[in-house]
Amino acid sequence: MPMPELVANLSVVQKVAPVDDFIRLRLISGLTPRPRDAVVKGLPRSLFGVHISLNDESAKYKVIAMGRVVGDGALNFEIVDIAVDPDYQGQGLGREIMQQIMNYLDREAPTGAYITLMADVPALYQKFGFKLSRPVSEGMYIVK
């Protein structure tokens, strides 16, 4: 699936977003802020990361969308940190991030692997075949 032409001068980078961009995108897109020391420690442990950056030297911020996959790389994969700068939302960038992640999972996740995510926008993820776990199971979490 080609990247949308709605925003010119974009690059898809198959790499975890840099720390400062990760922190900024989570904040401006409405995701829960994460402590910088945990971000620094956690990002290199990702299985896969992808971000979309602007190829515009005059742009204030270069990274405008991101996502990553964490887990053990065989039995369990979790899609996390899908975020798009609000100035660029509605242009297919979240869908492109998800397509890149699904391409990775198609290559790397073995048959029977469990792929999960917390869906704040279920409609996006349903387009990729994800289903709500209710009533079979219930998603749960704890924050320390």
From TrEMBL:
Gene3D superfamilies: 3.40.630.30. Pfam families: Acetyltransf_7 (PF13508). Keywords: Transferase. It comes from the Bacteria. One of its GO terms (molecular function) is acyltransferase activity, transferring groups other than amino-acyl groups. CDD domains: NAT_SF. Residues 23-144 form the N-acetyltransferase domain. PROSITE patterns: GNAT. This is Acetyltransferase, GNAT family. It comes from Shewanella violacea (strain JCM 10179 / CIP 106290 / LMG 19151 / DSS12).
